Amino acid sequence: MAYANKVGNVTFNHFVVSIATTAAVHFGEAKDPDSGVNLPINLEAAGQAIEMLVLLEEKTRGNLTDDEVVFLKQVLYELRNKFLSAKQRLDESADTI
Fold it and tell me: Residue 47: is it exposed, middle or buried by C-beta count within 10 angstroms (0-12/13-18/19+)?
């Protein structure tokens, strides 16, 4: 367990944030470190990250603290809204082509 001691304790909320960050990258919100240009939107990958959080919500139901439940619901709400916004941006860019 020496590795675990070096990286610290991973909480449920940290785990949720790591998956949410993956979704954010696929929403085109992250910049390529080399070029500085936003990465392309990948709705399929973003949707998979959201679905992982939905699965986590389902499988942990009844086993989370109230704060964890509220945090997960808020993250899912925000990601779903970002998904719709990203889809709208893709649809609008497709209309201009």
Answer: middle
Contact 63, 89 (CB under 8 A): no
How many Å apart are CA 25 and CA 46, to the nearest integer? 8
Q: What does DSSP assign to residue 36?
A: -
Predicted TM-score of the model (pTM): 0.83
Residues of the chain with pLDDT under 70: 1-7, 97
The answer to whether 26 and 49 have CB atoms below 8 angstroms apart is yes
The encoded tokens of residue 59 equal: 């499988």
